[in-house]
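Support reply, case 0932

Customer input (verbatim):
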Amino acid sequence: MQEPFSFQMAQHVKGIYHPGMMKWHYEHGLVIMACLEADPSLFSWAYGLYDPMIARDGSIVTYREGEFNLDQINPGRNLFTLYRKTGEQRFLDAARLLRSQLEHQPRTKSGIFWHKGIYPWQVWLDGQYMEGPFYAQYSQLTDDRKGMEDVVRQLKTTYRLLRDPESGLLYHAYDESRGMRWADEKTGLSPHFWGRAMGWYCMAVLDVLDYLPEGYSGREDLHAIIRSLIPSIRSVQDSESGMWYQVMDEGSRKGNYLETSATSMFVYTLLKAYRMGITNDPEDTKAATKAFEGMKIRYLDKDFCLGGICSVAGLGGNPYRDGSFRYYVGEKIATDDFKGIGPFILAALEVERAGTL
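Our regenerated output:
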């Protein structure tokens, strides 16, 4: 009997990613988490990756709290599994260190964490995934009701501030100060809907829900957000391939391309929302299945190497990233980038749970 597709992808990652190669980086944490979900027997492999990163006192190699970088929080999600499986205090201490950063993380006046210390007054959709699920899980572990409320409040405020009322899609980022060249001087919003950024946000909402208590009032607020976003996401799905474009609402405009990481995230979103009972339209599962098949046909080779992944995209910095259409479609397209493989495995798991393939 053939192993599940998610399992085979996890084995592919194990074959190219060995202990000693890990960096304390969100994409590393993401792909390890996805592999553990696909194949729990990979725990020893995951332990070998994290072991040299976490000192006996819980300090983390290369991590600096004072950078206030939300990207550095996401690899902490696996610390809970490592602590639960081994009982080693250092893993819990490392999680406490990351939680300490959130205690002191600068915020916008609207109450949302700055994306990084070097990006003052800025809210990026990416950041909601980088810290939200970790923050929610830590709050569940410590029975921190205020922490849970903070997570939900930030997700709701981000949705309100970054949503385009016409399309229903979410812009990549918001600059409360209006000081960045990429920010609209009236709204503070960046100019485009970047697929992976919106994918990060959708996954953040769904993963946070895993840790909120049943009956908690914030659950329905997050359900409502997902229910409002899914029709907008589906409205810009490519009808032929089933995939989504790098710049979501620009379709086949010259230079735009069907992108793997965002498509994986939307497959995950559609199927997990349906599995959780947030949505009930069977057409969502059909759309997700078509998208997953589209990725396999277009970007997956016989050796399980996955292509069509936007290597990176951001705003500001040096050299300056202006958030233009030309910028987003001009960034490097990569193969076997963990920002694509991780969501692809998570999407595969949802497809397998749905039994649609």
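We compared this against your earlier run and they match. Two observations from our side: The radius of gyration is 19 Å. The CA atoms of residues 242 and 291 lie 4 Å apart. Please reopen the case if you see a mismatch on your end.
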